[in-house]
Fold:
Amino acid sequence: GENVEQHPSTLSVQEGDSAVIKCTYSDSASNYFPWYKQELGKGPQLIIDIRSNVGEKKDQRIAVTLNKTAKHFSLHITETQPEDSAVYFCAASMGGYQKVTFGIGTKLQVIP
Amino acid sequence: GAGVSQSPRYKVAKRGQDVALRCDPISGHVSLFWYQQALGQGPEFLTYFQNEAQLDKSGLPSDRFFAERPEGSVSTLKIQRTQQEDSAVYLCASSSGTPALGTQYFGPGTRLLVL
Structure:
């Protein structure tokens, strides 16, 4: 089955700096890559996603890139704010019925 | 509109007890998923429903775990004879899509603690 690896496991940045989280996946059949933000005591919330026919997608301060050849995808958050502090999960899906395989998560701390 | 809701939010069970966890998906969503999230880990797939049909239960860890969605809406995850290793957050997600990819919307989860 699919295996998603994510790093770093923890990340501390100063407010205003950028944060980058990187993931790799194992199954070349995966074609959908969502990113979720999880705050304490809450369920994961989708923040951005990318499909395999696109190399990059941006939404305000958040951008994702996908390298299908290398099976890498990354999340970039610019101008970080304290409210960005949370656990971020990358994930991969092979489509069809949309079963999603998650990475282990990155705990992001934005220091004011 | 209302999102995915789950109840109870917290459940403490003694080892050996049976528990039932409820998920109310977003109205009209065809697809429903259950995930298990251990402390410090990402969610792991348990099972998937399309309407009332359970199309994939490959992630259920043992035959003590059972899920149903009899009318294609509300779903219940039942764990029989709970064990300490069952302690985790159980997340439910729903999606409007079937063959096409669609966003999965997660509920807040039920935190289960087995003593």
Notes: The interface with chain A takes residues 4, 31, 33, 40-45, 48, 50, 55-56, 91, 93, 95, 97-99, 101-109 of chain B (CB under 8 Å). The radius of gyration of chain B is 13 Å.
